[in-house]
Design brief:
9-stranded mixed β-sheet, single chain, 18% strand, Rossmann fold, alpha/beta, 4 domains
Length: 672
């Protein structure tokens, strides 16, 4: 329920803090850090993320004394700890003793020590060493008063998502054996009658290393599935140790927003709390739209439960070609955007700016200049503001619109040898989501098979790979009056990347009432005009289709190009099909669907102003523009209190300055 409240850790209110790497600093600095954390209002610090070499200096050497002292210090200053298992980067002694654990590329190059995440996910040596370290940490710190959260590894897949070494090959074959049973099952699934790719036994199968020409697409798809699962097995092994030795303390591993390499639906099911690392680009004036998309996904991964923003940059990052800093007030605005979309933590990388290493130019809550810096003053001000929003923690968001996200389909869509390499999931999704965001429509993401009863509208911008069960699920939703909108190049292949015969979108033909005779992708820079029944002209780019109706009604037709006169958008009852990529004009079609489904915006707002509700009692208004904006408020919010400015009474209209935020709280929020 939208009014349900759930606190993710034992620390009350909204968490505030960041990654703390004391191993980079002399111990005499720690006391100053603890004192300044208290001054800034920090309530949690992530500790130990890259401390493996410090914790275990040698195969049989352990050093926990420094961490004992650190946890005691932080606890004494009221700072809770998100304690990492430190397994993201194996130490040099382990690598030199077992160089076979280093990852190998598809070209056969073994990557070296000297960065991070330098391990093969399938390496039994790495897995055993990681579990051993996790067990030592859990045995020592389970129940420690400072530890409020366990943090497994760090950003799985950030640098190494796959390894092509012999150990990975053997693990891949074991995975295939569990999936297909034997070579006959694999041959059928992979279509090995093509190009003489038949296998007598699974022992003949290797990873999809660099080959003379195109590699079997089903092999590539299974490889993507396997690589996600192989990293997940690493996480599960550490998670099992924590469940055994430290039950009752929540466990997370930090995600990286909408990340292609890992099926986060499967991963989130193994976490107690979803957490995310988010780095929108201050140089992108529309970055806040993509950030909102990612935050909605994080909230959706655990069925609407609050989540933790575990990393973001206080100002500039260090890894883009040009690292633009955040304007004064921007980190506040973007942080509160995350809170508005379900985050119960606002944390950063990192607390104290590094003096050495690859991230020494990355911003921090405590910059190189120290407490005289702009960044420090903003850290202190925002910590105080966040305490004023404690009542928001635990609140949920209720959405009536959902977007279907299937990692299998994403992986399959972006394999080679497709009608157009320009058909990529993020680019197809973005205009659909942007249309909802601009209209202040709350949206959830859902996996195939999810419960859809609460949603008036379900959007599927692309489902290139479509299982029959997924088609039946969507068909049942539309058959009961749900408003379904499917995008182009959908219903093309099954779970093995085999074509659905008989005309696309084969499993959805009956639901949508259309058949695609031929795909008609557009080259770079080309567009075509699409005309709605009311005469409005829209622009399609990237993709069009030769579409014929069965029992659907055309809603729009092509008005230029070789498909002139053919249907471009159709509907059959409450089921709609967009046979072209309308880009920014997608909203013109969605407007009709949303109106018919009686989906209302959170609030009608001017351009650049974002309105979100969290729980029944809190309304967030965020002005992403560079000029003041006036927002008309309905009567129910006109007498609300602005938690960030309690002296202000909004009235029938509220003015927000550039990058301004208001968090309105109703005096007596209704029960929902």
């Amino acid at each position: 329920m939208s009014g349900e409240r759930q606190h993710l850790t034992r620390v009350p209110g909204l968490l505030y803090g960041g990654d703390y790497n004391p191993e980079q600093w002399p111990e005499e600095v720690w006391a100053e850090d603890a004192k300044l954390m208290r001054e800034a209002g920090v309530t949690m610090a992530t500790v130990g993320v890259f401390a493996w070499a410090r914790l275990q200096p040698g195969p049989e050497e352990w050093d926990f004394g420094w961490l004992d002292r650190l946890l005691e210090l932080l606890d004494a200053h009221g700072v809770a700890v998100d304690l990492a298992t430190a397994t993201a980067s194996p130490p040099a002694w382990l690598v030199r003793a077992h160089p076979e654990l280093l990852p190998v590329t598809a070209d056969g190059v073994r990557l070296e020590f000297g960065s991070r995440q330098h391990y093969c996910p399938s390496s039994p040596v790495y897995r055993a060493a990681a579990v051993r370290l996790t067990r030592a940490l859990a045995a020592r710190y389970a129940g420690h008063p400072a530890v409020a959260l366990w943090h497994v590894h760090n950003e799985y897949g950030d640098h190494v998502t796959e390894c092509f070494c012999p150990e990975s090959a053997a693990d891949f074959r074991r995975w295939l054996g569990r999936r297909y049973g034997d070579a006959d099952g694999l041959n059928a699934a992979w279509g090995t009658g093509f190009w003489s790719q038949h296998y007598r036994t699974l022992d003949e199968v290797e990873p999809p290393r660099t080959a003379p020409g195109p590699v079997n697409p089903t092999q590539l798809l299974d490889w993507r599935r396997f690589c996600s699962d192989a990293l997940l097995e690493c996480y599960r092994a550490e998670r099992a140790v924590l469940a055994e030795l430290a039950p009752g303390t929540p466990v997370t591993t930090n995600f990286m927003s909408m990340f292609k390499a890992l099926d986060y639906w499967k991963w989130a099911a193994e976490e107690d709390v979803v957490s995310d690392d988010a780095y929108p680009d201050p140089a992108d004036p529309q970055a806040y739209v993509g950030a909102a998309l990612n935050y909605d996904l994080m909230r959706s991964l655990k069925g609407g439960a609050p989540w933790l923003l575990l990393e973001q940059a206080p100002s500039a990052v260090s890894w883009r070609p040009v690292n633009v800093p955040k304007l004064p007030g921007l980190q506040r605005l973007w942080s509160l955007q995350a809170v508005s979309r379900g985050a119960d933590a606002v944390m950063y990388f990192q607390w104290r700016a590094s003096r050495a290493g690859a991230e020494k130019f990355h911003s921090a809550m405590l910059p190189h200049r120290g407490t005289d810096s702009r960044g420090w003053r903003e850290s202190v001000r925002f910590g105080a503001e966040l305490r004023q929003l404690a009542a928001v923690a635990g609140g949920r968001t209720r959405a009536e619109t959902a977007i279907v996200l299937d990692w299998d389909s994403w992986w399959a869509l972006e394999l080679d040898d497709r009608p157009s390499a320009r058909m990529r999931w993020p680019e197809l999704l973005r205009p659909w989501y942007a249309a909802l965001h601009r209209r202040s429509i709350a949206v959830d993401f859902v996996p195939p098979g999810a419960e859809l009863a609460q949603y008036r509208v379900v959007l599927a911008p692309n489902l290139y790979l479509l299982r029959q069960t997924t088609a039946d699920w969507l068909g049942a939703y539309a058959a009961t009056g749900g408003h379904l909108v499917c995008g182009p190049f959908s219903g093309v292949v099954d779970e093995h990347d085999h074509i659905h015969l008989g005309g696309y979108p084969a499993p959805l033909r009956e639901t949508l009432g259309v058949v695609v005779d031929e795909y008609w992708p557009l080259p770079e820079g080309a567009t075509t005009t699409v005309t709605l029944a009311d005469g409005r002209e829209l622009t399609a780019s990237r993709w069009t289709e030769w579409l014929e109706t069965i029992d659907a009604q055309p809603v729009a037709r092509y008005a230029s190009g070789p498909l002139t006169g053919l249907p471009a958008v159709t509907r059959r009852g409450t089921a709609w099909y967009l046979g072209c990529d309308l880009g920014p004009d997608t909203g013109a079609v969605l407007d009709t669907v949303l109106a018919e489904a009686r989906v209302r915006p959170v609030l009608d707002t001017p351009e650049g102003v974002e309105a979100t509700r969290r729980g029944p009692g809190h309304l967030f208004l965020l002005n992403h523009g560079d000029h003041p904006a006036e927002i008309d408020l309905p009567e129910e919010w006109a007498t609300a209190t602005d938690l960030l400015d309690p002296a202000r009474t909004p009235g029938p209209a509220l003015t927000l300055g550039p990058l301004g935020v208001a968090v309105l709280q109703r005096p007596t929020p209704p029960t929902e």
